[in-house]
Design brief:
Elements lengths: L16 H13 L2 H13 L3 H25 L5 H10 L2 H30 L7 H18 L1 H28 L3 H4 L10 H11 L19 H30 L2 H6 L3 H8 L5 H30 L19 H17 L3 H27 L13 H23 L1
Helix pairs in contact: 1-7, 1-10, 1-13, 2-3, 2-9, 3-9, 3-10, 3-15, 3-16, 4-5, 4-15, 5-6, 5-13, 5-14, 5-15, 6-13, 6-14, 7-10, 7-12, 7-13, 13-14, 15-16
């Protein structure tokens, strides 16, 4: 097996609309809903479900901007390419690209650390060994074939969705414990609480931006990528809404706010077993790490093609048609970060970086749309969409800064 010279072989287009949508849903769902439900309940109280609706609405504006940009500029390293097209500043574009790579590496490293905690519920294994085995295995999957990776991600996503629906099913048929028993402990819903909860719930929607970095492996990208992004966000909003409603049926908002594993506690409160949902959580963690490794390697590939990263990172293997060198680079640093660094604060920094990127991407679309694109016939949204996306992303950045300074 030999590598081609850098950039002389294209990525293989294997993904149709179904695969793209499920890939996107897998990048969004991840571990977010498994962890954030309780945190959001602490602010939104009995209006928990409306915080997720608000967060979905906020995310939708930026998701729509990504949908149009992926149609206009169907290239890997999405955000970096969008910024370059808007301002023709290669330095700023390269900075955005490396920020994306950093978020992918740090996120994957943080996720693999979470894997150890789930694994120890079933099997005791030394932390460094467990992390090393997982990261190397995921690296092999990501390097081998995109269709194989996408099929695995789609299957795992289906398992995650079924897990959420299982919890909803148990909670919907259980006695309404929260209303009957825990009324005194309930947290009343308020508009400020819903807004604060919505800001936190927003992070359960981050992930759709990863989709555009596989656009060169999508069939008919100008149609299938925007469609996949929109469908993935809509499905996520619907799932989160019914999970939040079901949660309040069996637990009070106060109890949810105290829970470190809200979905497992929902199962317990509903009379079900926590083993299955814990297994699904383990699978979700693996899925999340694989998605981040794929995303970061594709960003590096796209950057190499635009002289924003070393050319060797754009090397495509002639057999697997995947960016082998970029994948090895990403996996190496994921392993180093996962084994060597405390990642809680890094994960918070990653969220901040993503919001800065969202602000830049929405602003880039505003700039691009204000130019004359007479020959463009793809998805064309009202300019108000990216304007609102820019404002909401910037407000979330300010909210993060304020929360950090006041903590």
């Amino acid at each position: 097996m030999t590598d081609s010279s850098p950039l002389d072989t294209s990525l293989k287009r294997t993904l149709g609309p179904f695969m793209v949508t499920f890939y996107g849903l897998g990048t969004i769902i991840g571990a977010g809903i498994y962890v954030l439900l309780g945190n959001v309940a602490g602010f939104a109280g009995n209006w928990l479900q409306y915080s997720f609706l608000l967060a979905g609405a906020i995310a939708a504006f930026t998701a729509l901007s990504y949908a149009e940009l992926s149609s206009r500029l169907p290239q890997c390293a999405g955000a970096a390419i969008y910024v370059q097209e808007a301002w023709w500043n290669k330095g700023l574009s390269a900075l955005v690209g490396w920020m994306l790579v950093l978020t992918g590496i740090v996120s994957a490293a943080a996720i693999t650390n979470g894997f150890v905690g789930y694994l120890n519920v079933f099997v005791t294994m030394e932390r460094a060994l467990a992390i090393s085995i997982l990261v190397l295995l995921l690296g092999l999957i990501a390097a081998w074939d995109m269709k194989t990776s996408a099929v695995m991600i789609s299957i795992v996503t289906l398992i995650e969705v079924c897990g959420l629906l299982l919890v909803v099913g148990y909670a919907s048929t259980a006695e309404p414990v929260a209303a009957a028993v825990n009324t005194a402990a309930s947290i009343p819903g308020t508009v400020p609480g819903v807004i604060l909860g919505g800001f936190i719930a927003f992070y359960a929607f981050i992930g759709f931006e990863d989709m555009v970095n596989i656009v060169e492996e999508v069939k008919v990208p100008g149609r299938n990528m925007p469609l996949g992004i929109i469908l993935a966000v809509i499905l996520a909003i619907g799932l989160y809404f019914i999970v939040a409603l079901a949660a309040l049926n069996v637990m009070s908002a106060a109890d949810l706010a105290q829970s470190e594993a809200p979905l497992a506690d929902m199962m317990l409160a509903s009379g079900g077993s926590t083993t299955l949902i814990t297994l699904i959580g383990l699978v979700a963690v693996i899925n999340g790490a694989l998605v981040q490794i794929i995303m970061a390697s594709r960003v590096l590939y796209g950057m190499a093609g635009h002289s924003m990263a070393p050319t060797i990172l754009g090397t495509i293997n002639t057999v697997t048609r995947t960016p082998i060198v970029a994948t090895v680079f990403v996996v190496t640093f994921v392993l180093i970060f996962a084994l060597a660094l405390p990642l809680t604060q890094l994960a918070q920094i990653t969220s901040m970086i993503m919001l800065v990127i969202f602000t830049l991407v929405n602003s880039a679309l505003v700039v691009i749309k204000r130019r004359s694109y007479q020959d463009y016939t793809g998805i064309n949204l009202p300019i108000a969409i990216p304007v609102i996306g820019s404002i909401t992303a910037l407000l979330l950045v300010l909210f993060q800064v304020f929360s950090f300074l006041s903590s």
